[in-house]
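Bumping my old thread because nobody answered last time. Still need a sequence for this structure:
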């Protein structure tokens, strides 16, 4: 028994749609594998497990008087290109020397320009940490600051508009 002409056309269109679906899936998987960057945050699982502990540590450090001081937090005047920054790390107004201050800059929705910079302490001014940040594009950037001293870590994150 032969199929009617309209049934043959229906089967042909179903096959065309099926082939198009498989082709689109292959192309999508290819692009996904080429652009995969992996997890942005290292040790994200461990950080998630210690989330409550990290929040309590931050509150405790702030209560003990740990803080950062910089023009970046009050009135940032950063522009596209290279920018010299300085940040004072202190406890109850007393500068903290020999700490490790790391800055991470990143753009929302992409990790192409993510950078992590270790600031250096000014040899003439205890507790003053300086470095050079480069912003290749203007717009919104996320600025994360992490200061480590005596086994404790103080974090601060702000959004910066680069012009």
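Sorry it took so long. Here it is:
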């Amino acid at each position: 028994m032969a199929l009617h002409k309209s049934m043959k056309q229906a089967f042909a269109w179903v096959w065309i749609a099926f082939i198009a679906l498989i082709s689109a899936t292959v192309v999508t998987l290819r692009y996904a594998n080429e652009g995969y960057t992996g997890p942005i945050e290292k040790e994200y699982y461990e950080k998630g497990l210690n989330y409550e502990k990290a929040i309590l540590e931050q509150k405790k450090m702030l209560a003990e008087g740990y803080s950062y001081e910089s023009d970046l937090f009050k009135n940032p005047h950063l522009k596209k290109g290279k920018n010299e920054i300085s940040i004072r790390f202190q406890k109850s107004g007393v500068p903290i020397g020999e700490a490790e201050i790391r800055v991470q800059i990143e753009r929302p929705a992409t990790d192409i320009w993510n950078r992590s910079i270790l600031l250096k302490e000014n040899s003439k001014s205890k507790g003053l940490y300086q470095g050079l940040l480069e912003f290749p594009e203007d717009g919104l950037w996320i600025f994360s600051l992490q200061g480590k001293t005596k086994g404790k870590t103080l974090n601060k994150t702000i959004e910066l508009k680069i012009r």
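The first helix runs from residue 5 to 34. Let me know if any region looks off to you.
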